[in-house]
Amino acid sequence: MEAFGRLLDVLDQLREKCPWDKKQTNESLRPNTIEETFELCDALMNNDTKNICKELGDVLMHVLFYAKIGSETDDFDVADVCNMQADKLIFRHPHIYHPSQVGQPHPRPLPYGEEQEGREFADAKTSEQVLQNWEQIKLREKDGNKRVLSGVPKSLPSLIKAYRIQDKARNVGFDWQRREDVWDKVHEELDELRAELERDDRERSTRELGDFLFSVINAARLYKLNPDNALEHTNQKFISRFNYVEEHSIRAGKPLTEMTLQEMDELWNEAKKYEENT
Questions:
Q1: What is the C-alpha separation between 98 and 138, in angstroms, rounded?
Q2: What whole-number distance in Å separates Cα of residue 58 and Cα of residue 51?
Q3: How much is the pTM?
Q4: Mean pLDDT (whole number) for 176-196
């Protein structure tokens, strides 16, 4: 708490005395917030604990900055942010905070939620059950999502958005009964994509490509694989191998544009062997 208070004091001083901090608004901070979030994601992917700590601080500073701006217009302050989040977590975890109500119509323990008649919530002994309850409870909150998929941010990257859409649908029972059955859909979408590509119909091919990617993401989800993490690992692997090829071309004094594909493939295979032995 002392450290948290110190950070708040520093932010107050900067907001008052620093020309850059003085002029910031929600709109001007937004691009920086996006950048800081991705920098945190990079540190998390690399399991770089030192930079995870550093980037968490940067993201936290942005959260506090927005709360500071809110307090200046008397809309909310950092205490409101913390209390609203605590209320939300308590309301969405009846199996922890109101175990006597599990299996009964959902209680109204806090002003955050809106009491409604309807479906009962099952006991949540597994993470899957927690997520299913979570989605149903969100639909009952006073200021919550009115539709199952309305909580998916429009600005999410498309790959992550597809995963979240499918995951939310799953939490209300809209999913494959057997995960093995998804492969028929994947093959179906691939065949439709190839058919449109052979017709050279760019617009329809684009739509079919989207359907195919959506089905592959669905398969990954069903097998409990994170497609975004998987793709990022592949991105990093490609970068590493391509850099190996480029470095060797520089040493040989032969630009990549002057190398044959066979020469580049040989260096690529060297890079793969190097990875396997390190």
A1: 16
A2: 10
A3: 0.64
A4: 96
